[in-house]
Structures
1.
Amino acid sequence: MLQGRRQLFHKVGHGPNAAGFPAPVRANFRHCALISWIILPPLRREAIDEMNVAECIRKSEAALTAAGVHFGHGTDNARDEAAWLVLRVAGEPCDGSFEDWDRAVSGDEYLEIERILQRRIVERKPLAYLLGEAYFCGLRFRVSGAVLVPRSPIAELIACGFEPWVRPGRLERVLDLCTGSGCMAVAMAYRFPGIRVDAADISPDALEVAAQNLADHGLESRIELVCSDLFSDLAGREYDLIVSNPPYVSAAEIERLPAEYRAEPATALAAGGDGLDLVLRILHEAPRYLAPGGVLICEVGASAERLQSVLPAVPFTWLEFEHGGDGVFTIDRNDLLRAGPALEQLMAAR
């Protein structure tokens, strides 16, 4: 299914369905049988002109399956990835509304599908990069190799208004820390029309992508992009909510990543030997930027057990997700202040 159950950890797993396409796209291809093509076969022009969308999806699915590519950047299986590719090239909607499966695929469309599919198989790049798009909270975003492909389970929290952890009526200023493509900042601005959002990232290249997404969604007046190493350039600002999906992959896990994840920016994944370098800094510094009663929500994926083990007395609340995902905690400002001495001692010893 599209963005279904998570695998290994979220940076290399699958986000909730809300972060990808709606379920109807998945349901329409339950009947598709595998065909043993390695890549799409060369066809005569007249044969191409006779192919329809459903047939092209079946052949693309079979090629992806035979090649053994890894999924986890918007889809979690060959069938859905093939549907995304074919519908996108054909200029058809990917929101579950498409039903014209007998619609003919033109020769030019077929050749473009073949070109992208061959790159997907040979280069092992995520399809999102090859198409230049990804979906999060049902919204389309531009992506490039400068940013992670959106897939955080935090999408589910945004859709639910962060309740009961946050009272939406008291939200005025929100920070998306390590914003990348800006997908969470944009999704939060849609969900809470009255808030203002700061979206911070250390990468100027990532912020260029985020700026394009803000413009696409017409949110430049409500979201401010800040080039900042975590909180370094946010002095004097105060937030009711800080949401972060920082780098949290350990050195050992980095070594085991499939090729598709190595196509993503390493600085958005790697966080030292144990994966905790960034999250410990966030925990230590966040109280200075949270308003009274403010809340931090942070994703740490498979580093969750390590984080809890090095800070056993800190009262993290680990969230559960209906659509899959874990390794996301919430903690309020008061508890962070009380955890300050333990954090300082731990960081001094690292």
2.
Amino acid sequence: MTIPTQLQADIKAGKVVLFLGSGATAGALSRDLLKPPLTGKELQEKLTTEFGIVGDTLESVSAFAESLHGRDVVEAFIANYLENLIPNDFHFKIPKQNWAMIATTNYNLVLERSYEQSKKPLVTWVSGQKPKNLGTLYLKMHGCIAHIGMNQPPLALTQLQMDCALVSQPALFLEYIEMAKTHSMVYVGFGFGRSNITWIEKQLHQALGNARPPRYAVTRKPLNAQVQDFLKTQGIKHIGMDAKDFFDAL
């Protein structure tokens, strides 16, 4: 699988918005050997061990843990693990590209650290009004471990919190939607199971149809019939590569 020529040209021209999902963090390193990078399933197991809660999914375990121990305690536990994540070699390929904007549903600081070490300006937007554009704008749609605590939006761990993020932080989503009207979009590391991502795409498709810049989904995982149908309906082109191979190939 190769990257479409048009997508490569649009990235170089600064006409592409990059949207990072959890799969884009796969391969990240850790500064603490006792706290290696965790998959969603592994984080669920850590929460189960720490708080003595059994559940079928990360979402259900997180919801029970928050109800029993409070949001701050659960977020602090998660941040304690994610804080140790640092970029791998391929993450440093991201600041080398001319992205129009970057968005993510991730909470960690891997991208911030790759930009900082590359001495490239990155402006993180978690809540409130749009910050001044003194670098590449980075929308963190589901919160950030560097912005937890009082008067900060929660980490969107449960489906309800993900849905509430659409309402509580409308400026971020409106910015994304406005950019999507005029820029190509590339989703890297998504399974398209989170409702707010599919909700945004459906809203854009309803308003504009396919008369908008191209969109691409980068994932090597086999796509089930439901996801294949969704991508086809929305006019999103599938690129069968993982995040590492994609960024290495740019």
3.
Amino acid sequence: MRSPEYGLSVCAALLRPACASGLPPSWYPFGPYPPGPCPPPRVASIILGSPILYRREELNMLLSYPLRHLSAVALAVLSACQRSAVSSGDAPRRTVNGALGERLDSALRTYEREGFSGSVLGAVRGRVLLHAGYGFADLETKRPNEAETLYEMASITKTLTAAAILHLESEGRLATTDRISRFLGSFPSPKDQATVHHLAIHTAGLVVAGTDLYVGPDRDRFLADVRSVPAESPPGTRYRYTNAGYAVLAAVVESAAREPFEQYIRRVFIRPAGMNTAGFLNEGVETDPRCARQYAASAEGPTATRPDEYGWGNRGATGLVASVGDVYRWIVALDTGKVLTPSARQQMFASWSEESYGWHTDTVGGRVRRHKGGGLQHGATQILWFPRDGVIIVWASNNGQRKWRPELNRMLPAIIFHQAESAT
């Protein structure tokens, strides 16, 4: 029996308003699109035929469009989808496949009783074993975390920023050996020797650790701060993980691409990868009712807090808002060559210093592991990717009262690989 989600995906594939697609009205088979605003972004996104899950109110809105703008088949399917969505109730959507999925779910339910709050996705060779939420997205209203709850992804953002540099190089708009002054104007010595490559692998040395830099909407003001403060080290001589360096890298992306950073990331990565619910903090995505509220640790227990300020100073380093499913689709797009050329992917994951382009690569238990985590006062995020084994794990938490990273990063792969070894 097909799930309600399958029916909703079929609905999405059947409706194609020209207004949302940007195509001329003559393309639209049911006559010119009615005057007035286009459908909202989630409804407009159905032109992609992507497997997006629609809420009941969105389906009701679609059904309210003038009949001459919907095919009879689409209307029939939408009606069936609406009934299916209603019959499914408000229970959180979740996927638990097979004995291995049940083992993962059982372990995470134990952690849930101990305070874990977040969403987890685990997949082996394209088969999703577990995709579920635990704990609460809102402690006050007891709204649960679900499989596709949205979280601030913190430093996982850097994987897209680094990929943007490599994509621009593939397009011939920059070379990673270019000095950053080519795109951002002159820098004092020794900063004038810094290259795009140095920024990507955290060896540019532009800013001393702990330096207070401008964070806000003015890119030129941020870059002026980077120029004026003392350098930490000559470029290429020392590794130090830095958000400021990736914010400078985002400025390089804007200059080379000649479009806003978020717009470029959305166009070349988010949409092609099918990251249908992903966006950025400055786009108001954090006000989406699917977003988890964020809770910092305190002596009194988890305390609701606001997202960190987003702007130049951390743009490119943080700011992605997405579900664990969005992040999984991003990894699959990277793995399958959908968004980067083979040479760009090779450069992304090469061992350049202590870090490759936006990723850490190491070996654990004889297995190659690519990983990236994000840390926030109000939670954490993590990708664990074992490319040779076809294992991808993504988790996100919205509660910083307890640090779950060591336990989850140990437990989740251990369950998957123990089960796989037991079966051989």
